[in-house]
Sequence to fold (447 residues):
Amino acid sequence: MADPIDFSTPDPSVRELLATHPDLSLDAHDGLLFEQVPLETIAHHVGTPCWVMSSGTLRKRAARLLGAMEAAGLSVSAHFAVKANDHLAVLRILSECELGADVVSGGELLRARKVGIPASKIVFSGVGKTDVELRLALEERIAQINVESVEELEIISALASGMDREINIVLRVNPDVDAKTHAKITTGVAGNKFGIPYDEALPLYRRARELPGVKAVGYAVHIGSQILTVAPYRAAYARIAELVRATRAEGLAVSVVDCGGGLGICYRDEGEGSPDAWAGAIRAELGDLDVRLAIEPGRWIAAPAGVLLASVVLRKAVTGGASFLVLNAAMNDLLRPSLYDAWHGIVPLSARDAMGKPEVVSVVGPVCESGDTFAQARLLPHLQRGAHVAILDTGAYGAVMSSTYNARPLAAEVLVDGHTWSVIRPRQTVEELWGNERFPDGSEEAA
Ligand SMILES: *Cc1c(COP(=O)(O)O)cnc(C)c1O
Fold:
């Protein structure tokens, strides 16, 4: 697997981006197609900004990942990380691909249940699950809660006993392995808020076996996101294997290891994380432990299955510098470039635009923040006011992170499937935006 982005290489051309995105293609007449659907058709009928997800890409990638695990001889239950894309239509497609759900809130748990994902395929992660959320998990009898602290373990035990329930728990361990990804998406080094420090895991496992209402069944690890090399996985899993052996040496049973998610994709030219290499790391380090294995993929499945369509509002010339291309999509729609300096491919929808003469531009949104920048000094074909573009790889951590900052309604969402397409969320209206706001009537009085 390749190293993270090397910005000394030139920006990939449209042709190079299409080569790494097999479900996108450029037709001389219809322009950019997602599966068989011309994206210009969607931009024309639905308007922009507009998210477009591909059912086919979701299905293929889910199958590819599960296939890699199977080919490595692993029996793995896969739980889609719902936070990557929680749209009901997306969750239903993935549940039809036999994926369960990894949820981090009560809302995500209910979304998973809403599309019929059985509770027995739901795991619940996160550092701050509230009592209300934990009671919901207990009532639903989900497969397992991934516990992140001693404090949380005690709260779960008390709640479960009070409800006369017993729930499977696994301890999420912080293996202190640096996934060498962006600081804001690294989760497995000592000192960040996630997981139980490695040395405290076994004592806590012992303690869990004594507490009522909880059944300690194993360990979980999730070291971060957009991981492209196999080394951090191997290092983390080796530490977990060591922990499983140490736990069993005390006569305590361990039947589950949850390997987390984090496999990366090719946004620019970094190459994508290989499911086969990931499966190989799991097999090499955990394959002979005789445990039930789980994975929690999010980005790898969903990111390449989505694009964000936008229009060029205007070109703003800058004396002596790169012109600004101002889009009608912004950081409130797609936050990743502002939040993580993320690089996303940008491809014109019209074939003629895509063939245009390249120039260096900065691509920005209209929101009143300097951080509202999609691309700085990017080599793109020359685009005029009104041109349409697709921002690639926005199917994960895209629409789910949108806000309505600057009173910008949430963008429409469309799903393509073969040669058909459907609106799966109409564009929010400004009236809906303020629909729940009230003027004060002074009707409540402080006691
Ligand atoms: C976010 C998250 C995932 C998914 O990460 P991806 O990088 O999207 O694969 C899996 N497990 C946990 C606990 C997470 O927080």
User: Anything to note?
Assistant: The pocket of pyridoxal-5'-phosphate is lined by residues 81, 83-84, 102, 125, 222, 225, 260-263, 296-300, 396 (CB under 6 Å).
